[in-house]
Request: fold
Amino acid sequence: MDVTTKEIAFECLPIVRVYKDGTIERLYDSGYAPPGPDPSTRTASRDVVIDPDVPLGARLYLPEPANSATSAKLPILLYFHGGGFCAGTAFSRLYHPFLCSLSARARVLVVSLDYRLAPESPVPAAYDDCLRGLRWAAAGSDGWISAHGDPARVFLAGDSAGGNIAHSVALRAGEAGLALEGVVLIHPYFWGAERVGSELRTGAFLRPDHMDGLWRFVCGGGAHHNDDPRVNPLVVEDEWTGRMKCRRMLVTGAGKDILRDRARAYCDRLRESEWDGTIEYFESEGEDHVFFLFNPRCQKALELMDILVAFFNKSG
Reply:
């Protein structure tokens, strides 16, 4: 049967479509980008296997000339890609140029995690994989990390579902005694049973009616709902804010993104809590969800890159 005539079981555009015969179309896939030296940014990249049994891998980015004998140790940035927990890869043409630029501009050693995807590996597989990747990086388990990374300056960052993952891994890192310097949530995927603010409108990129069913889908169905604290941390009072052990946070939004207002509310919750860190919010006016990946040379994307670089380079 032709794919155009098959019955759809679930879809969340523009991320994924699943047919009743089990066929999965991952619409967020932009194709594979090979690792290696990038002349335009003077970064080197290579792929590593963290745990072959999972399997779990990552792509590492090292700014040049970090390999010189006199180079100072670099902050270590664990990056988690977006894709609604069910699409995307650390090895894609969408993320490779962005992370080359970020590594070069911010002078950070990037570990971009290629975590398992739903529905084959439902949540919490992505959380578990990314926490495992953090432990691996913090232990200096790779030659680049042990030679060039500073274990006293570890950051987490991610966009969309990757921002959600960064939030969750930051909470679990505190429980595990893993120290974090900072966390960056770029257009984070948080949702809820009751729509609020920007979620009431249909965006050019994300549709609220599709987002309503995404969490249950990536969790494998059953009784999972949109007020699960992992996707809606605001439904829990202040219990989670006490587990946030990083010193600094940056949350970014986009003016046309339907996820924008919940990201703002997340910042407000942290500011009003007894958490003793500092949090910044930055919004790209007139832009939609993860626009910087699709149009990296536009003025707003360059402005966002400047904000990210300033956050990673900030001391004290």
